[in-house]
Amino acid sequence: MMYQKNYDDILYLSHHVSKVHPRMNLTDRAAQFAPFAALNGHDEAIKETARIVEQKLDLDEYQKEKINEKLNIIRDNIKHNPLVSIVYFQKDPKKIGGVYLTLISHVQKIDEYEHFIILENDVKVLFVNIYDIYIHSQ
Predict the structure, then answer these.
(1) What residues are paired with 94 via a beta bridge?
(2) For residue range 103-128, what is the model confidence (pLDDT) as tens digits?
(3) Residue 48: what are its φ and ψ, rounded to 5°?
(4) What are the DSSP calls for the chain, one per residue?
(5) What percent of the chain lies above the pLDDT cut of 70?
(6) Which residues contact residue 39 at a Cβ distance below 8 angstroms, ignoring those fewer than 6 apart?
(7) What are the domain boundaries of the chain?
(8) How many Å apart are CA 73 and CA 57, to the nearest integer?
């Protein structure tokens, strides 16, 4: 081989060991070749962009009337802390849109002045964000 001839003088020499610098362990040596994160936060930005949110659905008058009827039943029975399944829209803090959540909980209070329902653990749901309510029999 032509190239081997160029390196014949060093090809079979023993590996040099420094007398001044200690030998680097394998973990530290490998760290030198770790990928360089030139774009800090880029992965997080991609994940955030890919995260899916839903648009809030508009209820028709019939659906709004049914929800109001159920809220009145709950208000009339509030002293019994009725158990409900409630589907509601929660706005996303970072994007336009949000998610629909379903929560099964006892109702603590209905605030007709501020227009929200208070469930266990102080979860507050605005009336306008309620998509459906099911009142469990007790």
Answers:
(1) none
(2) 999 999 999 999 999 999 889 999 99
(3) -65, -40
(4) -HHHHHTTTTTTPPPP--SSSPPPPHHHHHHTTSPP--STTHHHHHHHHH---BPPPPPPHHHHHHHHHHHHHHHHTGGG--EEEEEEEEE-SSSSSEEEEEEEEEEEEEETTTTEEEEGGG-EEEGGGEEEEEEPP-
(5) 91
(6) none
(7) 2-50, 61-135
(8) 24
